[in-house]
Amino acid sequence: MNWLLRALGATAIMAFATVTNAGEISHELGTTTVPDAPKRIVVLEFSFIDALASVGVSPVGIADDKKRDRIIPAYTDIIGTDWVSVGTRKTPSLEVIASLKPDLIIADKKRHSAAYETLSEIAPTIVLDSLAGDYHASVAQMGVIGQAIGKSAEMETRVAAHKATMADYIAKIGPKAANYSAQFGVTNAKGLWLHSPISYNGSLLKMFGFASNMKPKEGGVYEKTYVPTTLEQLSEVNPDILIFGEYVDPSHVDSWANEALYKGLAAVQYGQVFNVTAHNWSRLRGMLAAEMTAKDLLEIMSGLD
Amino acid sequence: MTGTKTRPSRKSIVILLLLLALIAGGIFSAITGGRSDTGITQLWGVIFTPDSSLPQSVLRDIRLPRTFSAALLGVNLGLAGLALQAITRNPLASPAILGINQGAALGLTLSLIIPGLTGLSPDAMAVAGAMAAGVLTFAIAGGLRGKMDSMRLILGGVAVGAFAYAIVRFSFTLDDELARSVVRWTVGDIGYIRWPQTRWLAIWALAGLLCSFVLAQRFNLMALGQASAQGLGSDPRITLLLGTILAAALAGISVSVAGPIAFVGLVVPHIARIGFGADHRILVPATALTGAALMLLADGLSKWLSAPVETPIGVIAALIGAPWFLWLTLSTKESR
Lengths: 305, 336
Fold this sequence. Notes:
The structure holds 2 protein chains of 2 kinds. Helix content of chain A is 45%, strand content 16%. Chain A has helices at 2-19, 46-54, 73-79, 94-99, 109-112, 116-122, 135-148, 152-177, 200-207, 231-237, 260-263, 266-269, 278-283, 287-302; strands at residues 24-27, 30-33, 41-43, 61-62, 84-85, 104-108, 125-128, 182-187, 192-195, 226-229, 241-246, 273-276. Chain A has 14 helices and 12 strands. In chain A, helix 2 (46-54) packs across helix 3 and helix 7 (135-148) runs antiparallel to helix 8. Chain A has 2 domains: 8-152, Nitrogenase molybdenum iron protein domain (Rossmann fold), CATH 3.40.50; 172-302, Nitrogenase molybdenum iron protein domain (Rossmann fold), CATH 3.40.50.1980. In chain A, the strands form 3 sheets. Chain A has a 5-stranded parallel beta sheet. In chain A, strands 10-9-8-11-12 form a 5-stranded mixed beta sheet. By secondary structure, chain B is an all-alpha fold. In chain B, helix 8 runs antiparallel to helix 12 (280-304) and helix 12 crosses helix 13. The longest helix of chain B is centred in the N-terminal third of the chain and has 35 residues, at 54-88. The interface between A and B is medium-sized, with 32 and 30 residues.
């Protein structure tokens, strides 16, 4: 139910945004007046790059975690490489942002709400729920961003094309997916974090028709999007298909390889453990990102009966 | 020596209660966890009718090493606190307050963010960090000259700890995944522990216990004051040095395994003193048992409280330890 509410909420924001003035943008923390066609845009999450790239707009500043290669070629082919790094997504440098003299800042609800006032003093700021939002919310945010940058029509066309692409993938993946439960998680040196059903990846898997075995007891819902998980907890979830994004090699999950409990997992027994690029799945969200995820899933499913 | 007749009976009740807490905590820790098919029946099964079923292997390979590790962490942290309180003659001394935990955290963080820095393993870096922080705090307090000032000791420890932890916290702002690793470890997570780590902890706990026994008489003399200890033929500087090394090693190794768990080192010796008096020859085993019982309880709670998600054991230990300590402080004042 939770995802449904979120999707409805996101849709409501989008619908609301379309009825207000062109320069008035409703977002997570209120309404912001933005210039007609902002030229100097700073984005503080990767999914906002996805939005800009989808209508061919280049930001002047990106919170790229001070690692320029985190902006993958699929994006740089469109937005170029002339952006200034404004630091990490977690703690972007307000000074660098101010020095860029932006006319629009797009920030994340979970990461940057505390800095909203300060960001708003620098430039008109809109705040969207990228990190903790699900797939449907991220698509809904595309419309808000399209309006904020004065490219509503182009964005609508792109969103429609994206939905058609995804519908195509759903048609190919869906019938098989209905027979499986699937779970995505990222792992680094110290632990495994499962992306719960309310997360971006969780909602994507659900959309493709996969079941989720991540069910809290007694009818509760997961409050957390990213859930730290031990091997024993994973064995209780025990999905048919396990998809891991490894940030390091060897990862924490690799250290389980010889344990009886790991070998007993359904996904391990059926040879249905898959590795995907952690960065593309976990850090990137948006339309192009979702299409990459769908492509990976199609590849995974075409190998199964 | 008044009350020699009543003391054994009171002590035996305390011992009984402690053993009961230990067993109850152990069972609680072993039967809670992620899998609903693994509980008390399987625990009995592992002991009396072992087989190779999955639930039993979960208990044997995952739950039991963790349970033992929780107990051993309690032993190590309790003994570290006991040694520090003895050598500083300060009831507030503990690995966390003297900056030793934070020093270990800094050592481990450095080994995580700059892997090839010293060529030492993360464990060794944690012990080295603990040792460095301990020595620094004692130097600030004048301990190296043989005259320790209590106030300067606590202030020095707070300063050293704050400085070390500031650098640890700085690492939170670094690369996302690195920060997640460090954060995950600083809240105290022992979910990854298997038998190899448990064996390692057991060796340290055993060595710590032995060393504490050897030093117990020196600790008792230290309680009379550094001058009196010297008068009785025990050089306080040597006690200080050995006690510091012991505490730093035990705290360092615990921190490297489970993150900086606060309050256990502070509270456990106090609880043991209530039950068993001030003689370190008895306090050493009593502290070890109390520490083990407290951490077993904390481990069970950490898995049970917000299931299916775990509350880190470090958080639980602080939640139990802090109010206990407050109560202890207030009630001691009243009785004076």
